Amino acid sequence: MTIDWLCKHHGDLSKEQLYSVLQLRTEVFVVEQKCPYQEVDGRDLEGDTYHLMGWRDERLVAYLRLLDPVSQGGDVVIGRVVIAPEARGQGLGHELMAQALKRCERLWPGVPIYLSAQAHLQVYYGRYGFAVAGEVYLEDDIPHIGMRKS
Predict the structure, then answer these.
(1) Residue 50 to residues 23, 32, 72, 73, 121: CA-CA distances in angstroms?
(2) Which pTM does this prediction carry?
(3) Which helix (H) or strand (E) holds 94?
(4) Do 82 and 116 form a contact (C-beta atoms < 8 A)?
(5) What's phi and psi for 24, nearest 5 deg?
(6) How would you classify the pairing of strands 113-118 and 131-132?
(7) What is the full DSSP assignment across 18-77?
(8) What three-state secondary structure class fits 12?
(9) Are 46 and 68 within 8 A, CB to CB?
(10) CA 31 to chain centre
(11) What distance in Å separates the CA atoms of residue 88 and residue 62, rounded to the nearest whole number?
(12) 108-to-21, 50, 69, 101 alpha-carbon distances in Å
């Protein structure tokens, strides 16, 4: 099935798109992963934040957030990377990362990209040129590690 990729500045999101983003992130990060935390963190509508969304049949099935380098101290920051449960195992995560890297280069050419990965995904992100930047730390009782792509 075809995925329709949209990358929108927060100011261009419809209320329905924003609702779908928050619904998917809460479904996976709070409910499925059993992490009660403030998922709506105030960053979705700040600075030059962009939202990369993959839609299939009017359902949001892939998503990540791009925080601009000015608000983040020099690096573009990729976060909230999520694939809907029913869309996993189809290579959609790889498509999402490829789309993200293209969008980063288009929006902020030559700027380093940082992400906070769940520690078990180091090899996965390494395929895209990300290298470990720091030590493993706990975030919501899940081991994470910083990774950067120059």
Answers:
(1) 17, 25, 13, 16, 23
(2) 0.92
(3) helix 92-107
(4) no
(5) -65, -45
(6) unpaired
(7) HHHHHHHHIIIIIIITT--S-SS-S-TTSTT-EEEEEEETTEEEEEEEEE-TTTTTTSEE
(8) helix
(9) no
(10) 18
(11) 9
(12) 23, 12, 8, 10
Closest CA to 71 of 101, 108, 25, 38: 108
> What structural domains does the chain harbor?
4-149 (3.40.630.30)
Per-residue pLDDT of the chain (150 residues; tens, 9 = 90+): 799 999 999 999 999 999 999 999 999 988 898 888 778 888 999 989 999 999 999 999 999 999 999 999 999 999 999 999 999 999 999 999 999 999 999 999 999 999 999 999 999 999 999 999 999 999 878 899 999 999
CA 53 to chain centre: 9
